[in-house]
Amino acid sequence: MPMLPESLSFVLPLAMFAFVSSVTPGPNNVMLTASGATFGYRRSMPHMLGICMGVVIMVLLIGAGLGKLFEAEPRIYTLLKYVGAAYLVWLAWKIARAGGVDQGQSGKHPFSFWQAAAFQWVNPKAWIMAIGIVATYTPRDGFFSNLMLSALVMGVINFPSISVWTLFGSTVGRALRTPQALRTFNGVMAGLLLLSLVPIFMEPA
Q: What is the pLDDT of residues 149-178, one digit of tens each?
């Protein structure tokens, strides 16, 4: 079938990009590691699914023309970038103060599906991933059908990639027997989340 080689010619590089961008450290993966350690893998499942769906929706909406809005009015993107940075600082503080699973009565809960999906809109790495997929890996010919395929590939690759971090956090969490040890681990995760903000402030305004 003549369309198969053409499809594979962009799907395979796209899958590689999706894997590398999903599995490498960033705000989502740091937060999932802390969530896995604090709440366990199963309770962190809505968080993972929300990330995956949020990124897929970003790819579709950016491909549908949302990116042109930021080209026309860069100040909107700049405002979004700094709102996102402030939110990440607040999340780092929350992670640093999180206790163990046995402290769940204190009102601390993992991210919900909708919270995680909405978070992608203030996550600079998610923007880079989505824009890269649309601008670099989605062929112009038959754009909208290719865009749908690109979003599907991203979703399929993203979920198992980020799950690795949650599983790692869950394993570490079981090894951290005392609340103090878990608090120290979460403090390190909070510090890494703050470090992930460095590229944001190095970008030109």
A: 999 999 999 999 999 999 998 988 777 666
Exposed, middle or buried, 2 (CB in 10 Å: 0-12/13-18/19+)?
exposed
Residues present in the chain in total: 205
pLDDT digits (tens, 9 = 90+) for 19-40: 988 888 788 998 899 899 888 8
Query: Using only C-alpha atoms, what is the Rg of the chain?
Result: 18
* Cβ atoms within 10 Å, residue 169: 27
CA–CA separation, 120 and 115 (whole Å): 9
112: DSSP letter: P
Who contacts 162 (Cβ-Cβ below 8 Å, separation ≥6)? 22, 23, 28, 29, 32, 48, 51, 52
pLDDT at 102 over 80: no
Report how far residue 35's alpha carbon sits from residue 136's, in angstroms, rounded to the nearest whole number: 32
**Share above pLDDT 70 across residues of the chain, in percent, rounded to a whole number:** 79
Comparing CA positions, the residue from 47, 45, 37 lying closest to residue 192 is 37
Question: What is the pTM (predicted TM-score) of this model?
Answer: 0.74
Dist. CA 132–CA 20, nearest whole Å: 12
Task: DSSP for 62-103, please give it.
Answer: IIIIIHHHHHH-HHHHHHHHHHHHHHHHHHHHHHHH---GGG
* Mean of pLDDT values over 115-119: 93
CB atoms within 10 A of CB 121: 15
